[in-house]
Each structure stands twice: as C-alpha cells, then as structure tokens.
Specification:
70 residues, mainly alpha, 3 helices, 71% helix, 0% strand
Length: 70
C-alpha cells in the first residue's frame, strides 16, 4: 500500500531488467538458505521466499499480458 503500484512503475521504467532483478534476489536467497548460509532475515522462511518468487513471476506475466509485450 505504501509503495503504490511500484511494480508496474518500475517495469515501465526499467523493463525486464527490473523483473529479472527481483527474481534473481529471491532465487539467490533460496540458494543461500539451501546451502545453509547464515541468513540475516529470520522471519522469512524458505516457503515464504518460494511464494515471493512465484508471485513475482505471476506479476511479470500479468504485466506483459497487460502491455501486450509478449
């Protein structure tokens, strides 16, 4: 709510680089958790991160369907 429609605005400005960056962040977190790397954010579980990754993927699909760029 505080961010407004930051995803769409960021996609409009930065394009697929923004989406790939967000997906990469979440994927890197999953890798770190899987490898047993000590994490600083302790209230976000592996499952939470998987859901975030899925949500960003769906948001990307919706964005591209809306702007007809696929």
């Amino acid at each position: 709510a505080d961010y407004g429609d930051a995803f769409t605005k960021s996609m409009d400005i930065f394009g697929s680089t923004y989406l790939l960056s967000r997906l990469h962040d979440k994927l890197q977190r999953l890798i770190n958790i899987s490898l047993g790397t000590k994490v600083r954010v302790t209230d976000e579980t592996y499952l939470d991160t998987l859901m975030d990754l899925a949500c960003y993927a769906v948001m990307g699909i919706e964005y591209y369907q809306k702007v007809d760029k696929l």
